[in-house]
Amino acid sequence: MIKATINGFAVSVPAGTTIYEAALGVHTKVPTLCKHDDLDPTGACGMCVVKVAGSGKMPRACTTPIEDGMDIITHDGELNEIRRTVLELILSTHPNECQTCGRNGDCELQTLAGEFGIREEGFKRMIKDIPSDHSNGSIVIDFVKCIKCGRCVQVCQEMQDVSALSFLQRGIDTRMAPAGDILLADSPCIKCGQCAAHCPTGAIVENDETSTVWAALRDPEKYCTVQIAPSVRVALGEEFGYEPGTNLTKKIYQVARRLGFKAVFDTNFSADLTIMEEATEFVQRFVHGKGPLPLITSCCPAWTDYMEKYHHDFLDNFSTAKSPQQMLGVMAKTYYCEQMGIDPATHYQVSIMPCTAKKYELERTDEMFASGHQDVDVVLTTREFARMIKQSGIDFINLPDGESDSILGDYSGAGTIFGATGGVMEAAVRTAYYFVTGENMPDEAINIQPVRGLKGVKEAELEIAGNKIRVAVAHGMANVGKVLNRVRKAREAGEELPYHFIEVMACPGGCIGGGGQPYGINDEVRRKRITGLYEDDRDRLLRCSHDNPEIQRVYAEFLGAPLSERAHKLLHVTYKARQVYLK
Q1: What is the DSSP string of 182-221?
Q2: pLDDT tens across 388-433, in order?
Q3: Active-site entry in 319, 351, 404, 412
Q4: Is 81 assigned a catalytic role?
Q5: pTM confidence score
Q6: Is-catalytic flag, 299?
Q7: What is the pLDDT of residues 79-102, one digit of tens each?
Q8: Which domains does the chain have, with CATH numbers?
Q9: Residues β-bridged to residue 461
């Protein structure tokens, strides 16, 4: 333990603790624009300088380990002026466009400028004339708003192992851009949006399509419906002051109706549908040898894009089951329209998702038009949906609960845990167990603890009817290669496969940490959101996808059986190798 003094208060912290971290222990937060809990500190912004007695230097608190006997001052008049000057320098190269910025009111730079009372320009403005990049449809880069903190580059290169973003040039000309100074659409970008989720300003934001949805809701020729993703229900509340993880499912149903949607569906229902198809696939491969193992999940569009670019030697291992979003879209425009007597050409399906890559998924392949129309018409992220609610004037906090529409709205506990890392695996195993044994998992075994939690790679060995099944769960793209390389090595050596079933989610924590979720993500927030989903699962009367009566009805009346000819046509997709860089 290291003993030191911070602002006159004694601290005792483990060796290796930074001054920034130690200061939090005495209820003091040192300002910073570059530090993020998910990332290694870089000291790039220079805001966190502090004083150390006996030293003429001012170290950066976020990168400097505290040493025994240090006497540290984190705040005084001189440090305040230094930080104010740093802010003024940053603002001198930042456009004065707060009112038209996607981060207006939720910007770390704007917040600090307000806290430091900056009312005048301290330095002459030098704003570069660089057009923003709207090329990839999921996220938008406004280069002139970049403060060179390095978060997005670090996230893209290290956390996500994509390297679509980098720093170009040097000195005052340093700028963030897609690697090679090309359009983002031509880069290796997988549209996961983690760069946007970690950017402190409006330099990277989601492609806002709220005006498109407002226009559709005004169109009397359109029959507008909406679906709500599993993880949205435990994150949306943060935009209205709720604690992370607060489950607002029924309040979301009600606000969707108040906004003007004619029917409200729940993507948890189609998560159950995905499990029926995917668990059947797994049983066909594992029990009957009809296809290669391991089976790899495919409901994350950022992951499918990454796999097609970097791991296309696993194309045949990928589950062909579409994501819950796309399954609900096609069922809404086929089965639901058939049941309700609605012309599918007028049916306009809006999807509320935690994920920017879901925007890309809408037109990823021709199979996303399986209904004869675009199955899902537009995707709004959680952040965009929150904006719509605020624009509507609806008192969301005091809104009474509502209900979803039947046939595509009821769900099991297995459907809701899709939003957490390990949830797809757990849901699939519950139903695979039933398909093999004819019985549900015992109550004491239904919570599959080894696949839960935030460890980057989780492994478990499960047993179904005397068969040992080895599974792995990876989240955050940098962790995926570790799992797949183990499989490759076993294949090359002719050894037994290390896994039979693998779940992958592109974003750390799974969908609860998606690139379109409310800002301020860290592991504490992820855990709270995950807890909210598991509590919903725990409290559901039905906890297995195959027990959902609406799922049973859909198969009885429309699909026939999992992997049937109609199910294959509507609910499955194919994959192909893609270029990392487009030309």
Answers
A1: --GGGSS-----HHHHH-SSTTEEE---HHHHHHHHH-TT
A2: 999 999 999 999 999 999 889 999 999 999 999 999 999 999 999 9
A3: 319
A4: no
A5: 0.95
A6: yes
A7: 999 999 999 999 999 999 999 999
A8: 2-75 (3.10.20.740), 88-206 (3.30.70.20), 223-571 (3.40.950.10)
A9: 470
